[in-house]
Amino acid sequence: MTYDPLSANPLAGNPLRTRSDVEKALHDLFNPLLPFFSKGSARVRLSGGAAHFDRIAADVEGFARPLWGVTPLAAGGGGFDHWELYRQGLANGMDPEHPEYWGEVSWTDQRMVEMAAIGFTLRMVPHLVWEPLPQRAKDNIAAYLTHIRKYDFADNNWKFFRILVDLGLEEVGVEFDRSLTQKYLEELDGFYIGDGWYRDGNVRRVDHYIPFAMHFYGLIYAKLARGDDERVKRYRERAELFARDIRHWFDEDGGALAFGRSLTYRFACGGIWGALAFADVEALPWSEIKGHFMRHLRWWAKLPIADRDGVLSVGYGYPNLLMSENYNSAGSPYWALKAFLPLALPDDHPFWQAEEAPAQTSAEPVPLKHPGMVMMATPGNAVALSSGQQNYQMRFGAEKYAKLVYSSRYAFSVESDERAYHSAAFDGMIGFSDDSRHYRVRESNEVALIAQDRLYAKWKPWSDVTVETWLVPASPWHIRIHRIQTPRPLHATEGGFAIARANLNADICEDGEGRGLARSPTDLSVILDLTDGARRAGRAHRALPNTNLIAAKTIVPQLRGDIPAGTIILATAALALPAGREAETALANPPAAPDLAELEALFAREGVEVSAIQVAERF
Description:
2 domains; DUF2264_C
């Protein structure tokens, strides 16, 4: 019998149209975890893989993260048969005399992250996890949580974790130092950069942590806080503004823009839509919010995201440790259950009563100053031209933050061998080599500007090589112009979008002067050289396996050529579309390169720094 990897996806086959469908999906996601609870129920160990934190913390992660889903389920009246596991686990994990004790915290620790779900649970369903416990267990839990909240949390979205713990302690009548709560609420406001957007801490980084963390927790606070009316009002108003922008990160089929770190949390990306519902913030019509929410879950139901036992894997579109971060343990993907927050709402809530409405996509490019992006909606795809993000120092930070273009349908690729220049994917970016073995790409920008719907960046792959890049939408195409100043000859490879490779090599690939093209049964991807004079050679490159986030085997059209010493200008156009008449029509009508002098004049006149590169004054 042939194994079908999709069959292990707990969402597969679920129509995901109704509240009962979503409730079933949650049970189906949780049940594969049951065999992995420890004897004392305080730990859930899902594999032998490791994260940078200790093994006990990883087991706590596996224990706590499902609470983001089962707690709203219970709060909304849904049945869940395993609360005794959680009562025992909480009692034993926080008991210093029990063999499954989680360990004392005295510095910034992963346990701090996982206590947020526990605080949320104490606030939402104390009758299930607190009230039935003996007094000794209650005393241990109170002592553990009040101890852990005294230490400094990481200077980013982590600050919300103390606040969520405090919501729980308040609910069950445990006294704590409320000045620490106020301190973090004020510091979180320092990350706000305007128009609904935050940075995730004191770095120039705007990614999915804004919808699935900063706003997600802020909306929970707005719903559950007692008093603090002024801040609650601000959180609600900011979320309303944000929703109008973040909807452009979601395509018409429900896919979210693949961008940044922590993408192994998968449908947590759609948590913003459920959080709006939970907090009764109708930032968009309920029908549109529900449409984004349900389509997103259905999008994930079609991908092989779980292992054979139905446990969610580390990865994105399929099990893939290569793309992960060093803080991803086997339990990390269960932050995806944050998407189930609206199960806390009754059946008659307007979110659940609404009929799904299609995504409201824009035919024109949508500039987003704060993340430094220009969004384009093409069939089944959300495309982001991108400049201005800080490359957070992590594995594949350049690929996750510094590519020229990102996509929901085609995601992006990470490189698997930094010493294999000629085998690199370079999708959505340009790479340079001076020895035909090693290579450099954009990692950060010295300058990043936005003017109307165009982007500019100045960056250095080496200290003595300067590249200026302009990005221009020409939907469904986009255009890139690079002015390269180098004191020595280089070789350059520039890639288009990666598309899934067909079985039995049933793809049509074209290599030729000035054009690289790949056509599969499902998609077309092409890159064109618009440079005056000498043309780069085109090729359809079969990328190394397991580099792309969605498709394990891909083809990337590329342009390749020598860069002489001195100053050279390259112009490129790229597109990818689902196979069909629209793709062939676009291919037959390529755009012309814009006039560089006019672009420079535009930025001289209207260019402003993207907000992602601004740092709050308090730092």
